[in-house]
Amino acid sequence: MLKKILVSTTALAFMSGAAFAGSSTVNGAVGGAATGAILGGPAGAAVGGAAGAVAGTLLAPPPPKVVTYVREAPAPSDTVVIEEKVAVGQPLPQTVVVTPVPEDPKYAYAVVNDQRVIVEPSSRKVIQIVN
């Protein structure tokens, strides 16, 4: 019986820590570890640190030069209107053509619903909406 409770508690700490680390204003492994430690003790710190590192790495804001490039670049000829709301952390549909940022190929951009968005090319996740 004790093993079942321990496993359930660890799973709960992982899910809560990952969700909280991703939505917190504290980013990365340090924030995730701190959140995990609060929610699940030492085991939660390890799990939260890993989850925070992934979330912090994937959604880190792009460098200012990338934002400036996307803001000032001519609009691609393929602008798209989609029904879904464009949101940071959500992938763009495959129908949206993304254009690589020449100076930094870790980033790409698109114009969707009259908004310029910076995306991570391989996952197509929106990193930032450029105003």
Could you give a short account of the major beta sheet?
4 strands, antiparallel
- Given the C-alpha coordinates, what overall shape results? globular
The percentage of residues in β strands lies in 5-15%
Count of individual beta strands: 4
Mean pLDDT: 73
Terminal CA distance: 54 Å
Number of helices: 3
Please trace the helix and strand order, writing H or E for each element.
Answer: HHHEEEE
How would you classify the helix and strand content by structural class? alpha+beta
Alpha carbon gyration radius: 18 Å
Query: Percent range for helical residues?
Result: 40-55%
What are the low-pLDDT stretches, counting only 5+ consecutive residues below 50?
Answer: 2-27
| Spatial strand order of the main sheet | 1-2-3-4
Number of domains in the coordinates?
2
Walk me through what this model shows:
The protein is of the alpha+beta class and 131 residues long. It has 2 domains: 57 residues, no CATH class; 67 residues, no CATH class. The protein is 47% helix and 15% strand. It contains 3 helices and 4 strands. The protein has a 4-stranded antiparallel beta sheet, with helices on one face. The longest helix is centred in the N-terminal third of the chain and has 31 residues. The radius of gyration is 18 Å and the shape is globular. The termini are far apart. The N terminus is likely disordered.
